[in-house]
Amino acid sequence: MTFSSRLAAALTPNRLSQALADMRRQGRPCIDLTASNPTRAGFHYPADLLAPLADPLGLVYRPQPLGLAGAREAVTADFARRGVALDPGRVALTSSTSEAYSLLFKLLCDAGDEVLMPQPSYPLFEHLTRLDLVTAVPYRLEYHGRWSIDLASIEDQITPRTRALLIVSPNNPTGSIPSVRELDGVAALCGERGIAVIADEVFADYPLREDTRAGGGALCGRTDVLGFTLGGLSKTIGLPQAKLGWIAVSG
Description:
The protein is α/β, with parallel strands linked by helices. Helix content is 27%, strand content 18%.
């Protein structure tokens, strides 16, 4: 049986996953530093956190193309909490951030087109691009006392098939947040070439250091580049099962 090229050729566990499974099978004590499920990390949640799920309005079905107006207004209120003014008409709701990526790749790219992605970064992006027949092309994050975007590497990687550039803020695993100067540079490179910028801000509430203001919505006020800012409820409230994402459109 031959399966789609969208799927990775090898689906075997990587060496780290295999080593962890072996230790658990042997009953050996270990600390899994890759664990990312907050519900298993000892956090204490408010007793009434899930109470809104019992609201009778949950039984009412009123589909709207961009998502319920009240929910989109709640998203804009969350941006306002960070000092960003946003029109609910520029917000689209999705079932997850992964779905938001898939929709944007379909909107922006034909099969074989390219999306620039930071390196190092989260390995999920390579799988998401493959599923939509898009080519992931890395650009560098460099470290000189702090992690920053290597603008020269972006310019080197741009081709006629480049359709979008991805920024993760704060980035996983570096924790870096692009400065205004870096965003200006990215916008200058992408705006004049018609390349969209996708800003993944699902971890905007979790800066690496307390003295760092993660902010969020840095693209929302820009008019010099087409921007899509992604966020998600599951990260904000620390419940992976609360699958709601959003796309804020700017430019």
